[in-house]
């Protein structure tokens, strides 16, 4: 077996990436910083085409390339499309709506329906224990409620 074929086989099996393999994947569309909306749309299309391939069939070098493109897109989005800060009561209301929950279904976390209502209306801040309970219930980061 030729040396390059053996290296490719090992790279696929071990999940490592050879420099040559990455260069081959990136040669047709070398990754570069995204500065314009046109660049942004182009690279989103590139990523979409990469992800449309079955991920199980994606080689290590292709996966690394896709990750690089995703990081470039993410950096552009952070600069040009920042997410608005959402208040903890709004996060709670949205999660309750998404899970089709009523206030009384959170009494085990808050202690009473009135406490849930106060939290939703912003009249009381969430306690550390309530944040932990909500994060566990909705399987989200506690940071969403801070």
What does this structure look like?
The protein is mainly α and 146 residues long. It has 2 domains: 3-80, no CATH class; 88-145, Orthogonal Bundle (434 Repressor (Amino-terminal Domain)). Helix content is 63%, strand content 0%. It has helices spanning 3-14, 19-27, 37-52, 60-80, 88-98, 107-110, 113-120, 128-138.
Strand content range: under 5%
Strand count: 0
In total, the number of domains comes to: 2
Ends apart, CA distance between termini: 58 Å
Broad shape: elongated
Q: Give me the number of helical elements.
A: 8
Report mean pLDDT, rounded to a whole number: 84
| Rg, nearest Å | 23 Å
- Largest beta sheet, briefly? none
Enumerate the spans where pLDDT stays under 50 for 5 or more consecutive residues: 1-14
* Run of helices and strands: HHHHHHHH
